[in-house]
């Protein structure tokens, strides 16, 4: 890195938080609730993440926005207990290049979730998501990292597909409805399209989602308003068991209020004291146009 990151305890919209700042990026994680990343973008620039505390709720749970870590149950990507501790206070530990934010103990499963953020290069950070089993029983599940973005006009989300082998394929799970009637657009939603080597989303404000088995493990958003590329990468385990056989997902909210860029880890069974981890690498770079899938692969 050309510049050493600056780590500071701050207030973010009246909430306790910790900030990582370099020449190229600014990242803020709440410590009052979470673990939750509330801001990501250029220093002095607008927030690339959708952030609207109190606006979108499910019972007592507040979506808020930003980036969060959920625990997915085997065979159920979004069970109710995944919300259990999202709005509880966290502990935080700073280091020379980043910090770790650890959430509250789940009252039922006795698990604890957290995120370690580390500045690794100019315009890059790693997010090491983790879940620790603090019970005396077995726990099984997987980690799901969800990033809420605000798509500007003309935004493009690109997910490279295939592994380049002579036996090359991708799994794409389409939805008609889910979660009590969400969606409803149908399977033929023209927001989502495939090129010869990628799935491409051009959000049009219709609520829908796709889940994919994508070997590259890359989701990239080109923001034409700011001429920026925000890409995140999570390696796939070829032998892993994933939700619906998929490791990536995209969700388009009604009227484009957000697009979620989602990566999933493989399911595992944890013995007492064991830790499950899921790493993402985030990249923020200048980009006049959306990179090709080949160029995206070269970045990681």
Tell me briefly what this model is.
By secondary structure, this protein is mainly beta. The chain has one helix spanning 293-299; strands spanning 6-12, 15-21, 26-30, 36-41, 57-58, 61-62, 67-72, 91-94, 98-105, 111-121, 124-133, 139-149, 156-160, 171-174, 177-178, 182-183, 192-194, 198-201, 208-213, 218-223, 228-233, 248-252, 259-264, 268-270, 275-286.
What does this structure look like?
The protein is an all-beta fold. The protein has a single domain, classed as Beta-galactosidase, Chain A, domain 5. The protein is built from one helix and 25 strands. The strands form four sheets. Strands 1, 2, 3, 4, 7, 12, 14, 19, 22, 23 and 24 form an eleven-stranded antiparallel beta sheet that branches. Strands 8-9-10-11-25-21-20-13-18-17 form a ten-stranded antiparallel beta sheet. Strand 15 (177-178) and strand 16 (182-183) form a beta hairpin. The longest helix has 7 residues, at 293-299.
Attribute tags:
300 residues, mainly beta, Beta-galactosidase, Chain A, domain 5, eleven-stranded antiparallel sheet, 2% helix, globular
